[in-house]
Design goal:
The chain has about 725 residues and is of the alpha/beta class. The protein has 4 domains: about 80 residues, no CATH class; about 110 residues, no CATH class; about 120 residues, no CATH class; about 240 residues, P-loop containing nucleotide triphosphate hydrolases (Rossmann fold, 3-Layer(aba) Sandwich), CATH 3.40.50. The protein has 24 helices and 22 strands. The radius of gyration is 46 Å and the shape is elongated.
């Protein structure tokens, strides 16, 4: 058996290679069709151009950085390049571009078809201008200066047709005219869905139809972003390269330059607003800070008058300088914290950074204050008051200077971005490497053809010869059942949940029935040496014809005046009762659940000497019922009363029911379907029985079609779910 297993697991590479050579025409056709498809695409695809522009983003912390002075270097700042990339792609910028150039209006000709592009090329152009959108078709053109439609018709194609002095808009889906108006003048119309405001101007006689689409804002933005990209040249360089591509080189140049203009204008406006906000903050802080400075000087002067002049040591002077520096830094950070707190939440990165710096400086101040406590009382008071005056003085001076600087900066604000290179109209198109594309396409088509050929071989790889089973599995094939032309209608009836017919009764001379008679003869000799007269019919997977074999074999055996009992042990999807037109309300399930007696379970048929035990209602535990002692006792009781007992079981690879039943039978036969059942399935089925201590006595090759060439679809799986019962 090891030899058989090795043979089974080996892949016949030589056979696969020769099978591919045999299908070289198919592979070549797939490759040529792929190349042809790409050639047609390249012929009809619009020519693409691209334009570039370069923007420099200077590192700037905004107007509020003046509040910190030199301390601003302490606080880490993120690179502004990434932020500016998002600004350049923001809805605020792109919406302004769309409104300025009317990019939310799309016009195409209904005659712009694949065939016309293939043989005549493209002769259409759309010009987007601030006041109008002009569509040119050869020497003719028309302008759409206003096109406002109800929200219902946004992102929908409307058919524009011209009449002698007017136009109409038609819904292409319903072919209903939804708007009419006169040319060369604005037209307004109110409907229940919304307002229409349309103005179309032309001096040319137009007789073609055009598709007009008013885009919603999200759709218009997406159409720009699809052709718009921004990359930073170098890491943290602050140099951004903007790129825009499209079919019209004049249009894409205009769009990119408009983006640059609006972006630069918004940047200046943004920075001016920040400066104005900072100035307002300083206006509120300076009077209060001036009052604090005056109060500190008054208290300090009173102390000096009371105690005369106090001479401080060098050490004390050093302490004073350190204290003044730290207090100044703390005051600046607190003001910065207050300013940021008005804009952002506490979880903002900048806010967290300022808070961390403030925490460090507070720690240093506490350490210095601890040292100052060791000085004499009068000297310590002198240092504290002097420190207060110095801190307030420096802070007030810094804020006044910053205030003046910001007022000057606001008057001449230029922003922190500079357009280095604007977009220039391109000359050359985006080059496509056509030879490389065609070569790769040919390779892809060849690979696709090989896959198709392999799939064809795979679908044809089912068992087609009984000798293949006997050679690889070393087991006999009891019968080769030929395909019956009248068998297929019966199967269709079964799928439609109608009563199928027994081929052995209606067409006893059919080739399939003659093949089944050989099983009767072979089983007679096999059962003479078996432990009992029970024959189990199973299969590796659904739809192999085991129920057909079981029911018709039972009829053939009964015709020889043998007492035959057929048991439907498929408690999940059994349908033996349909072949004999029997009631399935009570069956094997109810008997094993002790709901009925044996006499109530066994049913007679219209075939003499033939009885049937139906499956009954679907139980929740079919495997447990078949593995019960009651089932084993049932078979032991029935064996003496019948010459042959045939048990129809579920698929072996789907569920374990057949494995359980095989322990009680004398003859175990497995049904395989021609050109559908795989050898690996049969080998796996044999191994399943062997692991359970059972033996497969032989196989039945069903539905042999000599002329079909094995062209069947592999349309089943190992899934085997319970279906709704029908009596």
């Amino acid at each position: 058996m090891n030899k058989n297993n090795n043979t089974e697991n080996m892949i016949d590479l030589k056979g696969v290679l020769f099978s591919l050579f045999a299908q070289w025409k198919l592979i070549l056709v797939c490759a040529l069709l792929s190349v042809l498809a790409v050639l047609l695409y390249l012929r009809t695809a619009a020519i693409n151009y691209k334009v570039d522009a370069i923007v420099q983003v200077e590192e700037s912390r905004g107007a509020s950085a003046a509040l910190l002075g030199n301390l601003s270097s302490v606080i880490g700042q993120m690179s502004s390049s990434n932020a500016e990339v998002e600004v350049l792609k923001s809805r605020n910028i792109l919406e302004s571009v769309i409104n300025r150039l009317n990019l939310d209006l799309q016009i195409t000709s209904t005659e712009d078809t694949f065939v016309k592009r293939l043989f005549q090329g493209v002769n259409y152009q759309t010009e987007y201008q601030p006041e109008t959108v002009r569509f040119k078709e050869g020497q003719k053109s028309f302008d759409i200066r206003q096109f406002e439609v109800p929200a219902t018709y946004l992102d929908k194609n409307l058919l524009l047709q011209f009449q002698q002095q007017g136009f109409s808009l038609i819904n292409p889906v319903t072919e209903e005219t939804i708007f009419k108006g006169a040319l060369n003048q604005p037209v307004q119309f109110k409907t229940a869905q919304g307002d229409w405001k349309i103005a179309i101007f032309t001096q040319d006689p137009l007789d073609s139809s055009y598709q007009v689409q008013k885009l919603s804002l999200p759709s218009a933005i997406d159409s720009i972003l699809a052709n718009y990209s921004i990359v930073e040249k170098g890491e943290l360089s602050g140099i951004l390269q903007l790129r825009y591509q499209g079919h019209d080189k004049q249009h894409i140049t205009k769009v990119l330059n408009t983006i640059l203009a609006i972006y630069s204008q918004n940047n200046i406006t943004r920075r001016s607003a920040e400066t104005a906000q900072t100035l307002a903050f300083l206006d509120a802080q300076l009077p209060d800070l001036r009052k604090q400075l005056d109060d500190a000087e008054r208290v300090f002067n009173q102390f000096r008058q009371q105690h005369n002049t106090v001479d401080i040591t060098r050490e004390s002077e050093l302490y004073l300088n350190q204290s003044v520096t730290l207090e100044t830094q703390r005051a600046l950070l607190e003001q910065r914290q207050a300013e940021i707190g008005a804009k952002y939440a506490a979880a903002h990165p900048t806010m967290r950074e300022v808070t961390a710096q403030l925490r460090v400086i507070n720690g240093k101040i506490r350490e210095l204050n601890t040292t100052l406590k060791n000085l004499p009382e009068i000297q310590r008071q002198y240092l504290q008051l002097s420190r207060e005056v110095e801190v307030k003085q420096q802070l007030y001076t810094n804020l006044v200077n910053s205030y003046q600087q910001l007022r000057i900066a606001k008057a001449g604000e230029i922003g922190n971005v500079h357009v280095i290179d604007t977009a220039l109209e391109p000359i050359d198109v985006i080059k496509q490497k056509q030879p490389l594309i065609l070569f790769l396409t040919f390779c892809f088509g060849t690979f696709l053809g090989i896959l198709v050929a392999l799939f064809r071989n795979m679908f044809r790889s089912g068992v087609k010869d009984s000798s293949q089973i006997e050679y690889q599995l070393d087991l006999p094939v009891y019968a080769n059942i030929a395909h019956s032309p009248v068998q297929k209608p019966g199967l269709k009836l079964l799928k439609k949940k109608k009563l199928p017919f027994l081929l052995a009764l209606k067409h006893s001379d059919d080739m399939a029935i003659e093949s089944l008679r050989s099983i009767r003869t072979a089983s007679h000799f096999a059962l003479s040496q078996a432990k009992n007269n029970i024959i189990m019919i199973s299969g590796p997977a659904p739809r192999v014809g085991k129920s057909f074999v079981s029911s018709n074999l039972a009829v053939i055996m009964a015709e020889k005046h043998k007492r035959v009992l057929i048991i439907d042990a498929d408690l999940r999807r059994g349908h033996i009762h349909k072949y004999f037109d029997l009631d399935n309300q009570y069956g094997l399930t109810e008997y094993l659940n002790k709901q009925i007696t044996l006499e109530q379970m066994v049913q007679s048929t219209n075939v003499a000497n033939l009885s049937v035990i139906t499956c009954g209602e679907n139980p929740v535990n079919p495997s447990e019922l078949l593995n019960s002692v009651r089932f084993q006792e049932l078979l032991q009781h029935l064996t003496p009363h019948y010459d042959h007992i045939i048990i129809d079981t579920p698929p072996v690879l789907a569920v374990t029911d057949a494995i359980i039943v095989s322990r009680y039978v004398g003859l175990n036969l497995v049904v395989a379907r021609y050109a559908k059942t795989q050898m690996k399935e049969l080998a796996l089925t044999v191994n399943r029985f062997k692991q359970a201590g059972s033996t497969v006595n032989g196989f039945i090759l069903n539905d042999i079609q000599r002329s079909a060439g094995g062209s069947y679809s592999y349309d089943y799986t190992y899934s085997y779910k319970t279906k709704t019962k029908t009596s």
